[in-house]
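quick one before i forget lol
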Amino acid sequence: MTTGTIRVERFINAAWKSVDGASLAAFRVVFGLGVAVYAIKSLLRGEVRMIFVEPQYHFSYWGFEWVKPWPGNGMYLHFAALALSGLLVAAGIAYRVTSVVMALLFSFIFLSDRTAYLNHYYLMVLLCWMMTVIPADRVLAVDQLGGRVGNQWAGTQDRHSTESVPAWALWLVRFHIALPYFFGGVAKLSADWLQGQPMRMTLMQQPAVADLAEIVGADFVVYLFSIGGMLFDLSVVPLLLWRPTRKLAFCLVLGFHLTNAFVFPIGVFPWLMIGATTIFFEPDWPRRLLRTEPIGAAAKPVRVSRRQRTVLMVVCGYVVFHCVLPLRHLATASDPNWTERGHFFAWHMMLRGKRCGLRMYLTSPETGQTQPVNLRRYVTEYQFPKVGRDPEHMRQLAHMIADTIEKKTGLRMQVRAFALVSLNGRRAELLVDPTVDLAQRPATWTRPAWINELTEPVRREHWDVPLLEWEQALGLDAEAIIRQWNQSGPAQVKSVGSVAGQPGGRTL
């Protein structure tokens, strides 16, 4: 055997080595309870009504346009069922069934509206499906009580075979928990973040932080959060993996997530991550903590079967995919904080602060006349800022508006967007080309030409012009542009996007 082959065999044997399932059981309890708390909180705080019930239109992920929220009271029942499934998973009751049910229920919620995307919901979806394939019910599960009682009556004492799990299952959980840490840190290696934006704007809106900034200085607080947060994300996983620094790293995890829990409104995520990060400790840490009897060692090494090798190959392919996916925006050569292309599923957390001013206009193909759209008829107050910052949401809204009018009148209207956006304190620019009919543009994974380039540099002090004064400050006049459209047609107005991006741009 060659040296490479020997190393591969060692890796395979190490991956299938049996380890104590206690820490995996602790993770199962933490995660199941976290899902249940999320569902109950969403019901009690009115988030289900605001996000899934009130809107008449919901924004979709590519390929999942068929997933829509249940009508009537269906989403309330759905969240109640999710809470119940989370509790059952935590208790280890019918685990193989309830884990699949929990994954399906959570995935449906996640896919029901694209405007509700958050990185920690994406992580929870991944963890839900991971739970369906790992044996997290070997310890501290109601399902196992009957088997243990039977073993006692039969006189069998081989607890290692019943309470152990393959090492790869433990490492797969660790990989998922490492994802938002490491790639969150990589994403922070950007000019905006290193200059303290958008953290400077975000922190100064928090009363407690603003008071602290007056005492020790705003710059100190901003760079403590921004540079300190980046260094934490990049270093915490190696520190957790190395036994001598593991306890120190966990203390840093506690401080980091407790600070986030009290400073930023990010729900159950900090508490879930505190509990989930314990997976980096030794597999038997719950037994040591509770001072219970450890399981015995494996009788002898077990030969790895062909099926087990195939399973490990699939797991390795999955890991590689999720290491590449967060970096896909590099292929587009554009800033995902501006274009939103490559922002989702990439652990870009708190990297963009966008102030948006959005208008949409209808143009009749018969008369060529243009008129504004009352967007409040189509989107809710919750959805509006999320539409204004994301070109894909604008495109979907344009299709929805055109489809709605076409059903009523039989006429397919042209729909254009006049979207001014200020990114991380920059001077506002037009995010999309306002001469393009978005109702005719298809969905695409790449960056389409109708999304304008970001030209404004990041500022130390943010551009604080009131939203209603943006057009005047930029030298733009949307009404004058509309009058020109009515005279010559939107297609004849070629340079609106470029003028908005240049200092001192003037009305067309």
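fyi The longest strand covers residues 354-363.
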